[in-house]
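User: For a benchmark we're assembling, each entry needs the component sequences followed by a predicted structure for the full assembly. Here are entry 17's components. Please fill in the structure.
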Amino acid sequence: MHFTMENGSFALCAIFLELALCWAFAMFVDYTGESIGIVVENDPDRVRGTHPRNHLSSVYYYMFQDVHLTMVVGFGFLGTFLKRYGYSSAVPNLLIAAVTLQWATLCQGFFQMQRGKIHVSITNLLHADFATLTTFISFGAVLELTTPIQLIVMVICEISDVGVSMLVHVFGAYFGLMVSCVLRNNRPEKESVCITLPTPDLFSVMGTIFLWLFWPTLNASLAQGDAQHRAVINTYYSLAASAVVTLAIGLSSFVDKKQQFFTVHIQNSALAGGVAIGTAADMMIHPFGAIIVGSVAGLVSILGMVYLTPGINRKFGIRDPCGIHNLHGLSGLIAAFVGAIAAALATEKNYNYSLYRQFPARTAMGKTLDYWDIQYHVENVQPGLGRSALGQGAYQIAALGTTLAFALVGGLITGLILQLPFFNQAGRNAFTDDES
Amino acid sequence: MHFTMENGSFALCAIFLELALCWAFAMFVDYTGESIGIVVENDPDRVRGTHPRNHLSSVYYYMFQDVHLTMVVGFGFLGTFLKRYGYSSAVPNLLIAAVTLQWATLCQGFFQMQRGKIHVSITNLLHADFATLTTFISFGAVLELTTPIQLIVMVICEISDVGVSMLVHVFGAYFGLMVSCVLRNNRPEKESVCITLPTPDLFSVMGTIFLWLFWPTLNASLAQGDAQHRAVINTYYSLAASAVVTLAIGLSSFVDKKQQFFTVHIQNSALAGGVAIGTAADMMIHPFGAIIVGSVAGLVSILGMVYLTPGINRKFGIRDPCGIHNLHGLSGLIAAFVGAIAAALATEKNYNYSLYRQFPARTAMGKTLDYWDIQYHVENVQPGLGRSALGQGAYQIAALGTTLAFALVGGLITGLILQLPFFNQAGRNAFTDDES
Amino acid sequence: MHFTMENGSFALCAIFLELALCWAFAMFVDYTGESIGIVVENDPDRVRGTHPRNHLSSVYYYMFQDVHLTMVVGFGFLGTFLKRYGYSSAVPNLLIAAVTLQWATLCQGFFQMQRGKIHVSITNLLHADFATLTTFISFGAVLELTTPIQLIVMVICEISDVGVSMLVHVFGAYFGLMVSCVLRNNRPEKESVCITLPTPDLFSVMGTIFLWLFWPTLNASLAQGDAQHRAVINTYYSLAASAVVTLAIGLSSFVDKKQQFFTVHIQNSALAGGVAIGTAADMMIHPFGAIIVGSVAGLVSILGMVYLTPGINRKFGIRDPCGIHNLHGLSGLIAAFVGAIAAALATEKNYNYSLYRQFPARTAMGKTLDYWDIQYHVENVQPGLGRSALGQGAYQIAALGTTLAFALVGGLITGLILQLPFFNQAGRNAFTDDES
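Assistant: Structure for entry 17:
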């Protein structure tokens, strides 16, 4: 991984960016009340000094730390199977994470400012980690096309765009593919860049395994109460099913040495179950439903790789070296539809009390859903919209349409920005020369 | 890792298996009450919407996630030191885990069905992870002898047999060795298959380190209250002692390059302390007792490797490439005897109130031990048997005998099933060709 | 990694050490009350069997387990970039950890003995892990100079010296450099020993990533209440800033293949933010303050490596193959000064109620700060000293001076002890021969 920019312009840009972030943090970011020892008046605990609400909520902190771990270790090592990207995949991912964690704090907090300040708690750090996930997915589509400066610019554009969408996989995949399509002429001439290592790479297996193991925590980390239990259980079985289906097919296809590249993608298809259960993970889809979703997602991911990807790539001139369309794109679409169907089938009989916490908009029009949440230490008062079950399902599909539109338009604009002479300079392919 | 089954019969078998699992889940498996928002009537929290008992119990969820991580990362990478098993050890382990997590849910839940349904909670996921541990141990004994289909069949037979035994190491080791003995004629002719890599393998070190670090959580995850503290502390010191003893011996023996294979086994002997303290981890054996157990287990594991293994292997025609007899078999036997002695020495004076929770059978005949458990959110009412301390110790030994019998008979039957022409087909050694 | 001591004297020494530790544990170490089922009299929970205070405090246990993981995985793999230390870095680190975890229990517990016994709880295990951190840092400075026996002796001397200082990075770095200076004539003649691997090493990247990800937990694990929130948030942003600054500079400098060694150090400089924020992590320095500290620490770490290290090494005849002076030494000094400044600026207005928990000595003279701590389950009664804000800042600087003095004098004495003929025998460089 050599840079061809001898002038160190990338270092200067990054330091300038860090200065700008520092200024923005000084202006707009501060702690939340739970981080500065504010206690409720007249509270009996006060005289004892430590207010219980000020303690770290343990499940929550634990889940944050595990999501944090999974993002960088899982995605950092997933891409190491590419012959000349090994070191490049892990170190730039760390750099991307370091930028996005700060920038996402600002972008996501902008909409929740109180008296001109973004009050950060561990919730914000967790949301920033999910924003990082989006950029890692897109990185997989463009890693052979961008200079480091372009990569940082892309990440900044993408975070500004994604907001706090729950459909991070769909967004990340189609945003990245659109950028990749715009930049397709930057492709290096030697196609050999993406040939995989001669032996199957255990680091990439490690990345897959970390993601496979922690995906239940990923899907459960934003859920609450009984929904969190369901998110863990559903994701666990969905991943098991997709691993059985895809690894069985993958191992059976290990006939030809030339299919090594192919097989790494199959290995990643074991994760399709985790993506595809994402939206519906905390809904009442029952363990067998999770197994069906996982099996179907695994199959679709593999079939997409064999029959769909070659056509798409030829038609749009892209390449998708990490197969993100099959893992994140297709599985993300499945997730949206499964979520919509599960939402349309949700009744008070199935969900008991948690129906209105799961779908607050279904609370009767004008009524407020008043509950005190132990985990987040906040009182939520949300006005109901009286939405029906079918209406909720339709709303989920509409959210998918919006996400796709934002991803494609955002990716197009970002790609055009990256084509500006200012960014599109020397240093192309800087991340790719691991060995030459 | 190439498959010689060009016909894809393995993929078809696995997909059929997944369909069967899906059907069984649809018939028999559903959520527990805590996962579906059921709240206790007349509960003051109800009006606030989120019932505290529906929240994830944090220690418990955390321990499940760490056990889950350790199983697949730890055991997946332990076997990578074998020259031609690197990739094969990690990926098939993931496949085995994916099958057993589902199948164990059914087998273990079968005995706890309520109105025809298995109600799964995170407890079930944790128990399923321990069942996976058993199959990973056995896998180490047969990985050069089985086809992928045979491996899946073995795992299914083994899980049906092991139930919820606490002596998972003893069971897994002797079950695997018995299967290995029955299948001994399937051994590939080229003995070179198991030669280790020319350089010591850091992936296998990583597997060892993960297991060494997380073993306190493994041993503590099923304990409660003060017993959980003891399980952590005892395991921590036992592992430290076995690491000092075995690594010191191991490093001193690094004289000859040809002993590389030998040294990897020594490295694994650092884990013997964790296995040997298993049964007594939550008992009052005190830190110095844990250090004695760990030191002895480390020594026995190494001496077994040098003096016992060659004789056993020659006599029974097996090979044990991963040394599971020394790490899991012998250390598991030590664990059972240490547990029996500790149980025979348990008095109300030592254990205070927790004696009867630790050994419920020692509660006076007919009396019930009524306690409310914070972690599991259940009221346990267990009728006492008035068992004496010595009786409890004898009972632990009897449990060892039963486990051994089930392991050996189960392994024999499983080995014979695998010899059936239907399973014993082409594709032998399919997992072994990492590089040729 | 071959040993040249054919006589196995190292194994005998280690076994003798383990016996001595076992004797000391039998004499002096036992469980705390929470591990033996002692319940408070007249407690309403008593009749229900499980006392809440006997349950594992989940955040606390979780943080212990993660610190434990990070120490061995993070530091174990950090050193694998050295060509001939790969295996040697991970396995001896495990041995060091196994020795120090036991020895630190005795040394740290010695000062808190009650009725002749050290009562160990998970708190003790966590403190022992931090002692291990100190020895890992020093190990980086001497790994090419010591025999295994010298290494164990050094670790035992160091733990006896470090006590429970919060400035573990400063202590570990200057202790190790002083030992390295005393032993400088033991240097192997072939300088090639420390040449890095031809390709950048992903294992060392993995070590860096684990430390980068878990550093928030490291810094937060000994804090409480709202201070714990601040420790997580401040460390998170400080690390992000130092990663952006150092990786940007590092990637821009990847011009020349011969700078590979250099670049691994830059990679480690991404961690400087975690070290430099250490002392002030739980103080009110605000997110932008954390970003400034992280950026400055990253820059200082890199500039130190380029301009300071060559001069220091030439002047004192040391080498510092792992660059510990830049990562731990300089960043540790920054940490001490940042902590002093933050303490001098602390007011009741900024900190609300938590001021007196953060700085108990500032409580009015003779008054006691009476609070009940949920996490540690203890009632702390600490007499105030009426110290002023400036006085507190000066006290922090004085603590730095004391730590430096103990480190340098302790390192000198330890180095002289290691020079004794008894320890300074054959077997030099035993850990360095990974491949020859």
